[in-house]
């Protein structure tokens, strides 16, 4: 069994009367890429700051490499490479100087990987940081973080401000880390980003973990999209349990609809006597799953199960 690099058990955090984290429990095994999903304000960054020893939790337990991050942050930090969502730089230093400084602060040096990353991200290291856009500030942190040979990589909304080509470059770099057996915690609200890279996901809503597991385990909670054409009218299928979002043609022999996974067999059985001419099934995406949990209907339906 893989060792857990991160363990969080019923972690709570209050800011005055505001309860930012109500109940955060999840583990990150060694060598796994974990997507930490939730919209802005759900508690992702607060959780990460607790893991980094930047905030003291008000309840529960948290460990990184088996150590308490609040009490042993100095022992933990050299083993971590971290990119925040909002990067602030020294305005009078060039981007290259800041990258080298960040590497030295973590006991590492500018290397061939650093140069390769600058080229891949199309980054000019000679300009002063005061001239940088948000995207270029983000590149500084990403290049410094990805240049390091760390045991744990933590990315908190890392592609904020990047253009699509640089987002793709970041995704490719994370896949390289994954192939190398590195451990990655990726906090994001960009669903396609997480879907491409992560082994498992954790969904947080209003400071509480509402679901976790690998994508294959969780997709049964989302709906398949079906496009079908039949010889005979299929309007009656609209009333079949588990069928939603029904759209059909004027001839009543073509339809596009969503179906719950547990109702699929019954729907296919009902379609067979109608003479299926063509049928296409689209598997659920992580976005479908995410919307399922963030709609009030989806959350209350899940809670009732």
TrEMBL record:
This is ABC transporter ATP-binding protein. InterPro entries: AAA+_ATPase (IPR003593), ABC_transporter-like_ATP-bd (IPR003439), ABC_transporter-like_CS (IPR017871), ABC_transporter_ATP-binding (IPR050763), P-loop_NTPase (IPR027417). Belongs to the ABC transporter superfamily. The keyword Glycoprotein does not apply. It comes from the Bacteria. SUPFAM superfamilies: P-loop containing nucleoside triphosphate hydrolases. The keyword Transport applies. GO terms for molecular function: ATP binding. Keywords: ATP-binding, Nucleotide-binding, Transport. Residues 6-231 form the ABC transporter domain.
């Amino acid at each position: 069994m893989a060792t857990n690099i991160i363990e969080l058990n019923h972690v709570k955090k209050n800011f005055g009367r505001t309860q930012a984290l109500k109940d955060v429990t999840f583990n990150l095994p060694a060598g796994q890429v974990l997507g930490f999903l939730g919209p802005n304000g759900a508690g992702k960054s607060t959780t990460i700051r607790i893991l980094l020893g930047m905030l003291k939790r008000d309840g529960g337990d948290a460990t990184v490499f088996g150590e308490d991050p609040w009490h042993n942050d100095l022992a933990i930090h050299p083993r971590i490479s971290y990119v925040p969502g909002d990067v602030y730089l020294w305005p009078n230093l060039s981007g290259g100087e800041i990258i080298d400084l960040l590497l030295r602060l973590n006991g590492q040096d500018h290397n061939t990987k650093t140069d390769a990353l600058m080229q891949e991200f199309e980054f000019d290291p000679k300009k002063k940081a005061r001239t940088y856009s948000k995207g270029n500030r983000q590149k500084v942190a990403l290049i410094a973080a990805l240049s390091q040979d760390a045991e744990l990589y933590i990315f908190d909304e890392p592609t904020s401000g990047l253009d699509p080509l640089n987002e793709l470059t970041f995704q490719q770099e994370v896949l390289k880390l994954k192939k190398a057996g590195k451990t990655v915690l990726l906090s994001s609200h960009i669903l396609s980003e997480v879907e491409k890279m992560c082994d498992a996901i954790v969904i947080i809503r209003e400071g509480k973990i509402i679901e976790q597991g690998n994508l294959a385990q969780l997709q049964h909670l989302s709906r398949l999209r079906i496009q079908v054409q039949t010889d005979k009218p299929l309007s009656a299928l609209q009333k079949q349990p588990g069928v939603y979002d029904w759209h059909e043609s004027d001839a009543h022999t073509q339809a596009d609809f969503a179906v719950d996974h547990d109702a699929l067999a019954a729907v296919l059985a009902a379609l067979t006597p109608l003479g299926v001419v063509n049928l296409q099934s689209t598997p659920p995406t992580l976005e479908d799953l995410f919307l399922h949990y963030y709609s009030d209907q989806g959350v209350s339906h899940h809670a009732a199960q």
